[in-house]
Amino acid sequence: MGGMELWEARWWEAAVVRRNPDQKKGLFFVVWAVFRRSSPGNRSACSVSKTVPFIAMPRNWVKGNAVGSGSFGVVNLAMNKFTGELFVVKSAASRDGVQVLENEADILENLNSPHIVQCLGRELSKEANGERRLNLFMEFMAGGSLADVAEKFGGALDESVIRRYTGEILKGLVYLHRNGIVHCDLKCKNVLLGSKGNVKLADFGSAKRLDSLRTENGGKTSWQNVSGTPLWMAPEVLRNEGLDFAADIWSLGCTIIEMATGRPPWEDLASIPCLQCSRLHAVMKHQNFQLSYQRRVWISWQNACRGTRK
C-alpha cells in the first residue's frame, strides 16, 4: 500500500469516529496512534501494524478463495474493502501453526527490501466457535511461486530467465545475511513472482536469527532448532554440524537445479525412510549415490550465473 493510500485509510478511520460519537473514546486513541506511528516515509507498514494493524482494526477486509496452504494452515486471497487493494492472509489456529506465523512476522517486521515479500500486519481474532486464530497479512504477488510458474511453462525455465531470477534471489539473500538472518527453506515454492518479472523471497516461518539461535544453544546451532525441506537442506545441517549462511547458498544451488530441470534436486532419494524424519544422516555418509547429473547442471550454472554479479 502506497503512502497516499495509507493516509486515505487513516482519514477513513477518523471518519468512522466522527460518525460514531459513542466510539470516540476508544477509537480516538487508535486513530492518533496510527497517525503518529505511520507517517509517510516510515520504513515499513509492518512496523506500524505490529502495534496498530490498520488493515485489521476497522475490519475493512474480506477473505477470498484459498490460494495455497502450508504446515501452519491456509493462505487466502483478501481485499481491503476501502482501497480495493489485494493482499493475502495466512491463517493458523493450531499452536504449532501460530508459532510458525509469529516467527515469520517477527522476522519480517524489521526488514525492508524490494527483494523480500512485505508483511502488512497481524491480527489475533476469535472465531464464532471460540477458537483463536492468528491472521498474518502479506503482500500479494500476482505471479505466484516460481514452482507454479515453472509448471505452467513446461517445467524447466529458459537460461536467461533463470539467470535473472537467480540474480534477484541473490540480492535478497545478501540483504538477509547482512541482517543476520538465514532463510533455512529456500526453494522455488518459497520464491514469489510479480507481474513484471520481479521475484521476492517469501515464507519465513523457518527463518532463524543466527545470533539468538547461538545464544540459546551455547554458541552452537543444531538440527533440532532448524526446520526446512530435506531435499533442499545443506549436508552440514542434515549431519547436525551446525547452521550458517552457507546453508542458504546450498539451497540456492538446489533451487537453480529445480528451475533448470523442473524437478526437485535429489528426487531419487525421496523414498528413503530417513527423509521422513527430516534427516539424511545415513544417506550423506555414503559416497556412492549418483551426483553426476546434478554436478553437471550445477557447474554449468556456476558459469551462466556469473553474469548476475555486481
UniProtKB/TrEMBL annotation:
Question: InterPro entries in the record, alphabetically?
Answer: Kinase-like_dom_sf, Plant_MAPKKK, Prot_kinase_dom, Protein_kinase_ATP_BS, Ser/Thr_kinase_AS
GO biological process, any: signal transduction
Q: Does the keyword Transferase belong to this entry?
A: yes
Record domain Protein kinase: where: 61-310
Q: For binding ATP, which residues are annotated in this chain's numbering? A: K90
What PROSITE patterns does this protein map onto? PROTEIN_KINASE_ATP (PS00107), PROTEIN_KINASE_DOM (PS50011), PROTEIN_KINASE_ST (PS00108)
Q: Does the keyword Lyase apply?
A: no
Keywords linked to the UniProt accession = ATP-binding, Kinase, Nucleotide-binding, Serine/threonine-protein kinase, Transferase
Family matches, as CDD domains: STKc_MAPKKK
Cite a single GO MF annotation: protein serine/threonine kinase activity
| SUPFAM superfamilies membership | Protein kinase-like (PK-like)
Matching entries from Pfam families are given as: Pkinase
Which family does the record assign?
Belongs to the protein kinase superfamily.
- What is the protein's name according to its record? Protein kinase domain-containing protein
Species in which this protein is naturally found: Stephania cephalantha
